């Protein structure tokens, strides 16, 4: 079912797997693109084996691949390759996130794609980019994160760094890729040719250092992880109340408000603390002052309500259950319920791009492995049912409704 | 100087400040857009006061605002507002990251922008989105991070969560915004009208939960932070060597390789550990086995080289100095040197979007406050030098070359 959305009519041939690449094409599918996900027999995208799995069906796969068609084809056969080439001739976008060099070895590198279809935009996503000394390293989120100096900036200073337990790097790298593709399509729409996009986790992660890189470059100081209180702003950190934590932030404009909120208006004019630089200098004292006030409050909810009344930025650290059930999250569809034939209804993150001109939440479905072999090859390449059955029989095509 | 790039000829009127918004328009400036940054007297974008500051010049500001023109104008005067309206009539994109409601109160809400220029795309960036129970809360990265259930997923399980010491949320929200703008421009290029984009930190952060949300929704289990070893994959974590840490990952395909690399090929067939599910079940034992091997190695470098030889994903946790000086980072321009009249040469993250059709690293400069008042109002609105001087004298315009 074609959506009426920005990318309606655009075709994407999608060789991606697991997370960064599928996140990019998921967003494009939600914008109406006709995404043909190419999977390889016998198992397809390895995320079909990632948790949460119920009845052989992976919620991980469903979340990232709704609205895409699954074409399961053996690219190592001459027939399979020829069919893929015929598809490349028809699409607007080709995207892959193999290790660098693999796409070329499979016969679908940029040179080949460009020769087959000069208008096609091709995007490669990798951990470290297509060239350079580290480009051959395996492409896991946390590996690129460590090399980007991100891991080293997370955790208590006197112990091991902490790993964020979510796909910050992969998903946001997917967003970088999806963005680059959009601008490349815009360029093409204005008369330009197709082009090649080289997007990496390393670039996307490193791109997020807003202070650290320049601080080191200009002063030689090496910033490092600082636990749960920021090293350059004070107070900005997590304060404990019972077994919960609350984030409280006061930059210079909010410091007097926080002092008021803590019932100590005089503190605002205390010369020891009346600038962020001074407070960072005396961070231990400032943190102790705020913590002492927190300790006197009856509950996290009371802290939040009181500080909000004084326009002091604050937030409870919430767990996944609290977040998924928060009225704001549900009302806005930041968390949404989707429906799957095998998994039933369950919750996933909502579409983060909100366009006033288009509906936001189309009822998309995820495919079983090879579900659209016939539809894709029949519609786009005009193959007969007999031909498709023969390709299936010889293993060029594969399908598995149990996935 | 106009770049020859994808957005050459596109005009952006940029009311953003600090990080998420400026990151979006920075990327657009690097793609050749004519970005007019509107700042308010007397101080302009408050990031001009953020570290690192040398000689009154903020490297923070320079990093995020290279290639943009600065127009410093008092929007609370009738003349200032009229000039801004005239500019809105001429631009392709209007972008702001005030708290929800502020743009409308300033007279530049979507209704007004759309009425002035139906072709304009307008993007608002906020912490929680434009509507909903939490939309009025202050818009800091860490506040949205806590509400998105991200903070709670980072840190050791038995102590406070850890705050990542970099702008992961703001910068990536900026990328989401920049992406949405690109697709809205593509839509316009194909005959569509302008439209309104509502982008939030909360959406962008929550969007990164690749396992947690569905796991909770389908099983009721509430995943939480797990320190430096992943809760769903084993081994995937940080191992200590001396005062450093190394990230080692072995999913099912890599487990036999890791066993080999550790000199214990027999371990691969040990039935207690021969699937990820079993290893997660016995995570303590597996982690201890790997740590014991790490302990026997002479250095982090030796560990990395040895595991790389066995195709086991691994990485040293690097500090900012190590990262900024890594040959791969420099060779690829993931870290780059830029030049500023006051700060001299220093390092910032490179442009993360790499287009084969365009040069990547234009020599862009950051503006002092109001540096382009005359250029913008003279060129785009045809104001005479006398008129501009009069506006400057009455405080409608402002400039400060010392910033």
Percent strand of chain A equals 15-25%
Overall mean pLDDT of chain A:
97
Oligomeric state as shown: homodimer
Q: Order of strands in the sheet with the most strands of chain A? A: 5-2-1-6-7-8
Radius of gyration of chain A: 25 Å
Show unreliable segments of chain A: none
Name of the CATH architecture of the largest domain in chain A: 3-Layer(aba) Sandwich
Sheet with the most strands, sense and barrel status of chain A = 6 strands, parallel
Instruction: Please give the CATH class of the largest domain in chain A.
Output: Alpha Beta
The tally of helices of chain A reads: 17
**Class computed from helices, strands and strand pairing of chain A:** alpha/beta
Q: What is the CATH topology descriptor of the largest domain in chain A?
A: Rossmann fold
The overall number of domains of chain A is: 2
**Helical residues, percent of chain A:** 25-40%
CATH level-four homologous superfamily name of the largest domain in chain A = Crotonobetainyl-coa:carnitine coa-transferase, domain 1
**Biggest contact:** A-B, 146 and 145 residues
How far do the termini of chain A sit from each other?
21 Å
Number of strands of chain A: 13
Helix and strand succession of chain A?
EHEEEHEHEHHEHHEHHEEHHHHEHHEEHH
Shape of chain A: elongated
